[in-house]
Amino acid sequence: MFGKVMKKFLAITFFILALQQFVYAATPTVWQNGEFYIWNYGQPFASPNDLCFFLRYENEKIGNPQCYNAGDWERDTIAANYAKWLNKNLDTRLAASDLKPRNQHISKRLGELKDKSLIFSSIRNDTLWLLLFTETANEPQKIANFPLIVYPNKADSTEILKKIANDWFGKSPQIRLTDSEREQMAKEPDAYFAKQPQNDFWFGISAGLNRAKIPLTPNSWYKNKLNSKVKNYREPTNNDSNSAWSFIKDDTPLFTAYIGGSIYDFIGLEFGVRYSSHNVKVDNSQTIYDNLDYWYFNRYEFMLEFELMHSFLPHKYVEIKPHASFDVLYSILSENISLKDETIHSAGTDYYYNNRFQFENYYRGVSLTLGVRTAIFTNYAIDIRTGLVYRGRSNVIVPSGDAAPEPTVIGNSTTDGFISAGLEYHIKWE
Amino acid sequence: MAFSNELIRIYNKGGSLPLARTWLLAALSFLSCTQNFSATHKLYSAPTSANQSIGFVPLGESFMLTRADFFSNALSIPNDSIYNKLENLSDSIIFNQISKKYNTVQIPKNTREKFSKETQKLDKTIFIKTVFPEQGVEITDTNGSVPDYLFIIHEFTIGGDLDPINFYDYTKANVELNQKKKFKNLSIIVSFSLWDNKKQIPLKSGISDSQTPLKNNFIDRDIFTNAIKNAVEKCLEK
Hints:
The complex is a heterodimer.
Chain A: H1 2-26, E1 35-41, H2 48-58, E2 66-69, H3 71-75, H4 77-89, H5 104-111, E3 117-124, E4 127-133, E5 142-147, H6 157-169, H7 179-187, H8 191-194, E6 199-211, H9 223-227, E7 252-263, E8 267-279, E9 292-309, E10 312-315, E11 318-339, H10 347-354, E12 363-376, E13 380-392, E14 413-429
Parallel strand pairs in A: 1-2, 1-3
Antiparallel strand pairs in A: 3-4, 4-5, 6-7, 6-14, 7-8, 8-9, 9-11, 10-11, 11-12, 12-13, 13-14
Helix pairs in contact in A: 2-6
Chain B: H1 2-13, H2 18-31, E1 38-40, E2 53-56, E3 63-65, H3 68-74, H4 82-101, E4 103-106, E5 116-121, E6 127-132, E7 149-160, H5 164-168, E8 185-196, E9 201-213, H6 221-237
Parallel strand pairs in B: 2-4, 2-7, 3-7
Antiparallel strand pairs in B: 1-9, 5-6, 7-8, 8-9
Helix pairs in contact in B: 1-2, 4-6
């Protein structure tokens, strides 16, 4: 089933690509205010003035075209030979590539046409043949034939001209380039080679959101942690104290300042400081918290990122750089707590508050981050990131079997996801 | 290719058995599917009819003799005139051979000098050097009339044990062949075109070779003449 759908999809894609190729091949460039030359072999079929009239009539954007008889082509001996040969060989069975001029002189002259269009016209076997030559190829770009039985009168040349003007020159035109501009264009390197990989140094700030629940994961993973509240913890009632999210609020804003560098648009290092503030989830039904004014923890994380990236250049002034990084970090939680001013400090309340839960001095952590950096005008960038962060404490000492059971370390295994958007300033050099 | 050479040799030797010949031809035509030694224009239809004239362009520069010393000894022609003599001899043999089948006329010898040198693709890796008249110019024969077709030989190579694939397949261009004193075969390799003189297009181009077995390196004018006849015959067959 899937294979069938895939096959269909591929077939349609290829068809569109093929069609696109065909369309590109089928439409030569139309120049604004262009020059058009009619190269007659034998009887002329239309005057240059008529051609110009219909070019303007069919394509308003074409500007003010100028049309001439290609006298220098008609008088060139070798070109005249080629015209004679074309007249003999015009045949519906032949493709444009079969009508190539073999003489170098003709090829050279075709190359020198620049932005001029040369229309060859010849009558053979009661059929008018029109061939379009441009500088782009050493063969006719377009071939059209009009049986004179269908178009018997001289007046019908207007019909033919209308059709030609519409089919060959109906596209929106491009502005003609001067010789120096053409030279410049020819010298311009290929877009793929235009830009060297660059070294980069940047600093930036970002704001985001922090949350314990990671999208697309089951609620049951978090339910206990997120629902648990800090009661009178002299009677420890928290089911699981491994995660800090059992004690403090997970869903908070997140601010980061960072500084980094990369080489060859490929590999880089970044150092960042991340700040977030987490309220303690106190159980307000407990009377001991009546006198509590505020109680929250500021979390500071110092992180070192190892970053891999790839650079795309969709436009001259836009650079899109997806990146992935692996971070190591230190996480520190600093406590802020205060009682209400009017609280009379009594031995009882002070006792309670002085014996509250404590986090470790610091936790070690790792983080996996994915992001896209979009740089505009080389120096300014918007960086959108998302990632997973884990913090824990490395237990290097294995407790012996007969030792007393140690209390669980609070916040030993804390995981969250984040998403953030940053503004960066980049300094780049090659 | 070596295998097909072998087949050609058997074909030339064992002429008495018609069935064997047919089988060999079938085998050869099967082999020729692998690499194409001829190319045909889209407008080429049937072979020329008897009343249409073919102009033969003399060999001139296209005549090439490898191992001139060998031929000079074998045919007892002085070394300094061997090119001249063999070229004229070949010209007349080819002309007579074509005349047997078609209404043939002679093209002046200096006409070839005005032709433009180009290349033509016969197959993926096979290209021949060609000499063709200008587009739009009709070639006249020695009497001043215009023949319908031209038989143009681009390269006419005579030697011993030559394989056309080494000459025209560019992937084999660097194959070095050791110089032998004794030959198994007298080889003639011809690259040719049938040219439409009225429309100035190459109707059919191809490469053909004839391998004539030699006994004890012996060669005389008869063997030489027959070899050329054979080569021309093969061109006309194509």
